[in-house]
């Protein structure tokens, strides 16, 4: 029941505008975000938890394997990020990814109020794992 509630909130935010990892090149990440430190770097348990969070909150748009081909994402004008092919992901600090998840960029929702701070950091870990699978 709780998962369905979060799923409905996520879909509603996607379609009624919020913020996005979709137009990554358009995002201007503030300098301070680059210095944010991931408290879960190298933590495999946190990464596994990030995978669970991804399955609940991100898979609809970004797809199971992170290719940006989720069912809801296919209907969006701005296509979701493909984490396997993002060229700049290796060069982005964890803090930048965390900031993007937190702030969003239409049509991607801001997850500032939907996910706790530690959940967003765990997502950063899992997104890094997806990118390694390219």
Structural account:
46% of the residues lie in helices and 0% in strands. 34% of the residues are buried. The protein is mostly helical and 134 residues long. The chain contains six helices and no strands. Helix 5 (94-103) crosses helix 6 (117-132).
Structural class: mainly alpha
Compressed to H and E, one letter per element, the order equals HHHHHH
Low-confidence stretches: 12-24
In this structure, how is the largest beta sheet organized?
none
- N→C terminal distance: 34 Å
Total count of strands: 0
Outline, from the CA principal axes? globular
Helix content: 40-55%
Quaternary status: single chain
The number of helices is 6
Q: Work out the radius of gyration.
A: 13 Å
Average pLDDT for all residues? 85
Strand content: under 5%
What characteristics describe this protein?
mainly alpha; 6 helices
């Amino acid at each position: 029941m709780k998962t369905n509630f979060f799923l409905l909130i996520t879909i509603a935010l996607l379609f009624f505008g919020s913020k996005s990892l979709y137009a990554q090149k358009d995002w201007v990440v503030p300098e301070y975000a680059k210095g944010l430190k991931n408290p879960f770097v190298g933590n495999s348990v946190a990464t596994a938890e990030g995978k669970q969070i991804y399955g609940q909150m991100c898979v609809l748009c970004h797809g199971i394997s992170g290719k940006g081909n989720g069912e809801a994402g296919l209907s969006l004008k701005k296509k979701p990020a493909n984490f396997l092919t993002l060229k700049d992901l290796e060069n982005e600090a964890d803090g930048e990814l965390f900031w993007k998840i937190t702030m969003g960029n239409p049509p991607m929702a801001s997850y500032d109020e939907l996910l706790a701070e530690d959940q967003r950091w765990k997502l950063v870990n899992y997104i890094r794992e997806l990118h390694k699978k390219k």
